[in-house]
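FIELD: query
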Amino acid sequence: MGSAISIAYSKKLPTLSGIRYLIKSSRSMMCRDYGCAAIPLFIIKFLVVFAVSLPLLTLSSHSYAQGTLDATTGEATTSETESEPQDETENRDEENPDSLETGVSLRNRPAQANGPVASEPWAKAGFYGFIDTRQRLGLPDQELLDKGLRILTTDDFPPFNNRDENGAPQGYHVELARALCEELSTPCTLKIAAFEDIPDLIANGQADVALAGLVNHPSLKDVLDFSNVYLQRPARFARLKEKFFRTDTKGLAGKPVAVRGGSAHEAYLKAYFPTTNRVPVTDLEDARQLLTDEKVDAIFGDAFQLLPMISEADSPIIFAGKPFYDTHFFGDGMAVAYGHNQTDLGNMLNYGLLKLAQKGRMSELYARHFALDVYATY
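FIELD: result
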């Protein structure tokens, strides 16, 4: 901008004799066109001086911003060096690192959306966890770390928890428990328990935490507390591959949809898909049979509970449409359960989950254990 000003105003400004010449010639032209009596001389002088002064005033304002006005030649000149405006966010970025480990400024890293950074190889798996990796948490209590964790899980919810051919526990939650203990450098033991017994076992002090797909439901608020959510549990429709339809109120109007009777999913259908023909079933296996026999057009249920029937080889069933989230009906999502009012233990669990998410381990575990992305739109 400075060089442009220098070029535009490189000519000398009009001298006093030049201004007098302009007044005289202007008066002659105006007298010729309008008559001298109609044009007083002082008006002509005013107009000419104003016209000549306007560029000078404009140039002076530019000279304050971009350079100086040469008093001898009347030319505008610019400074040889112009300071760059300082970025006010530069220091703030350095004071607010997005990772407890690296402290690297956000300006130098790809944007994050509640998941591992794009430079992590497992971020390419397409899954971004539900843990905000930009948060800061204090270090866990060392006494708790030395004490270790007694962890509960189940063995009847693949691919989260089940047993291998040798009877050993395996699955997503088993691997998450192992990764969490390694990250915290704390000794851990893992025990199998019935899902319905877990709240009482923790409340009675027979275990410290549970990784078993529990959600923070109001019915458990006086017994258990929960870590930050590591996986959401959306609801989904499933259909036969060759039976396409839209999964909105218009597309499902009048269609028979199998759903577990008395469940939160049936209540959700009643509230948001009132024109759907709900077909209550006892369990999802009954719903599957109705679907394959084409007695219903779809199944509605928990996405992870539908996943096994969809993941089977040559399965005729697929996810339909998008996932549905509603904390009122489906809870906040999967979290680590621990004893009520044990704040330090909760902080330790959240710290471990945060570190795993920042390193991309949460994304790795998800990609390794789930054949299909339950959060995608199909």
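FIELD: remark
Residues 41-66 form the longest helix (26 residues).
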